[in-house]
Amino acid sequence: MRILRNRLxxxxxxxxxxxxxEQSCLVPVEAFNPDQTLLPGQIQVLxxxxxxxxxxxxxxxxxxxxxxxxxxxxxxxxxxxKNEQQLTATGGVSYRDRQILVNSESVLLDTxxxxxxxxxxxxxxxxxxxxGAAEQIKLDTNEGIRLEDVSFTTCPIGSEDWKIEASSIALxxxxxWGEARNTRFYIKGVPVxxxxxxxxxxxxxxxxxLLFPEFDTSTSTGPTYxxxxxxxxxxxxxxxxxxxxxxNRGIQLKTEFRYLTDAHRGQVNLEYLANDRGFGSNEDxxxxxxxxxxxxxxxxxxxxxxxxxxxxxxxxxxxSDFYNRADTHLYQxxxxxxxxxxLDFMMSFRDFEVIGDxxxxxRALPEMKLDYRSNKLAGMEFRFSSxxxxxxxxxxxxxxxxxxxxxPSLALPLQSQWGEFLAEISVLSTHYRQENIENTSLAKEVxxxxxxxxxxxxxxxxxxxxxxxxxxxxxxxxxxxxxxxxFEDQSDIGLYDTTRLLNDFEGLFRxxxxxxxxxxxxxxxxxxxxxxxxxxxxxxxxxxxxxxxIFYLEDNRVLExxxxxxxxxxxxxxxxxxxxxxxxxxxxxxxxxxxxxxxSSISLEYQLDPxxxxxxxxxxxxxxSGEEINQIGxxxxxxxxxxxxxxxxWYKDLERQRTIESYSGIQYDSCCWSLGFVVQRNLINRFxxxxxxxxxxxxxxxxxxxxxxxxxxxxxNNRKMLExxxxxxxxxxxxx
Length: 736
Prior knowledge:
Elements: E1 44-46, E2 49-53, E3 57-67, E4 72-81, E5 86-96, E6 100-110, E7 116-125, E8 131-140, E9 144-152, E10 162-171, E11 177-187, E12 190-201, E13 209-210, E14 214-218, E15 222-226, E16 229-234, E17 237-246, E18 250-260, E19 264-276, E20 283-295, E21 300-309, H1 314-318, E22 329-339, E23 343-354, E24 363-377, E25 380-392, E26 400-416, E27 419-435, E28 445-459, E29 461-467, E30 470-485, E31 523-536, E32 541-552, E33 570-578, E34 582-590, E35 597-609, E36 612-624, E37 627-641, E38 644-653, E39 658-669, E40 673-683, E41 698-708, H2 719-725
Antiparallel strand pairs: 1-3, 2-3, 3-4, 4-5, 5-6, 6-7, 7-8, 8-9, 9-10, 10-11, 11-12, 13-16, 14-15, 14-41, 15-17, 16-17, 17-18, 18-19, 19-20, 20-21, 21-22, 22-23, 23-24, 24-25, 25-26, 26-27, 27-28, 28-30, 29-30, 30-31, 31-32, 32-33, 33-34, 34-35, 35-36, 36-37, 37-38, 38-39, 39-40, 40-41
């Protein structure tokens, strides 16, 4: 042991330790950095005054700091007895190491064994948020920390909403679990239960154990209790097993397995319900999902997304964390990709699990795409796109096809601050080989070669202007595009991955009227558009409005693209930052022949801060699958009082004059615990035996979520409630 005498050390350089001033949520303790210059077992004492008796007893007074390679002690007075191998410190003692921060009246340290004892203490754990008081604390470098007659909580001083008291708590070195004996659990000072033995996590590491339960009830499932068991298999691997007890249906088991390596990550989910009692079916029901992404090398990637379920009503009756009741397809894809500066390659196997009475979907087994691009042709850009795919169908009576598509193109792009110009020519060559075409008008072999040319130009004008009393810049951005695509009869080609696209303002300049390649419309058209923006002094966009329309110079001869008018609907888009807190957005399409709105979506949002949001939405579609869509919606998130927050949404079908969905959630969120209640009513949309969905049945549900922060949870367990309640509030409706 080495003692350095009369070394003054400025106390202001050391972090102050104060528990009494801690009135708000616990702030994490800064990491302790011991003195790395001290050798193991070496102690350095800094004090205002020192006194040594016969080189065996040393007394230090006034701002005493005792430093070692593992800890630091601060006190008013300290005494070191060389013969007894003991160090004692008294008077406002504080002790700090990597695990704990303690205020005490006295400290006794055995300098030979490293054992330390403190009496009448209050403490803070440094590995995670937690504090308390103890009659005695014992620290041993080999055994860890032991606290006698101790209390523990993650709540701040003066707001102990919950607290644990125990005869002893042990925190062993290197272990992620603490052990408490004779434990009493208090809520608001009232004892609620007793455990003779209790183990709890003491680090932020993932640990095996029970997760917090969830309770809800609905007309479909009845009262439901769900609680997960988490298994920390390895640092890169874990699993969760969650039994779900449903009064109306039985016991469902939900499992999740996750893995992670340097180059790959994936997840497997399995859900199983045996003998479902709902609706008297007694059927076994299941859902599975497997996802994987990984890097095979610097340029090669692999990915998978495979899903399946037992029946059409699984998502409607039992819900899902990955799909919602409006989904009609579950993906089943497996792909491998190659990326480089000039060449991209993709090969995938695409299949679908079809839900309900929907047209049978073609699967691509496989589909391969190769794209090459180069800009080394004297300012010209060359691009070669190709695709090879085989399309199959679950129905044996439907045609199958092999499709090869080759599309070289040459473009001249010019860009400057005042505008841009693009000239592009392409050849679209496609070969089909179709099988199982008896009793159809399809041809066995089809070769289709089309030429396509595009001219696009835009100009950017600016001027200084005033905007609500401030200096701003207004832009005027006219743009024009001419598109020509030659014609070939395509009626002898089946529809394998092709559907009609709908146009918003951006879609007017897309040039494609269909997804996929089975139909390529003949075009001879001009698209005109204009955009104007208001940009403030800080280069923030305050206002934007766009108008555009396509003018058809010739009638389309591809039947699926035929139109009655010589121009498209007028498409308009508006974004307006109304001050610092209001924002408006609108998309609208107006038929120029009838002057009627064909499609529109309007939203008005007020956001005072991230927790105070109000938004009203309206969506209108004149004709969609033979029906008119006319809906209004309201979404909100708002604090009701200190620690209380409300989230809600409401949608009404104006066509049928009925509420189609309502959601209301209220959450209490304090520093150390949280509680949430959710009430919801929505259309069930169950499928009958023919695959048709009901549009007149509703389901009501109620749920509760509760968690203690700091015991296996560092954040609110109600985040999912808030996300559910605010689902889609940014863009609640899309025109397409």
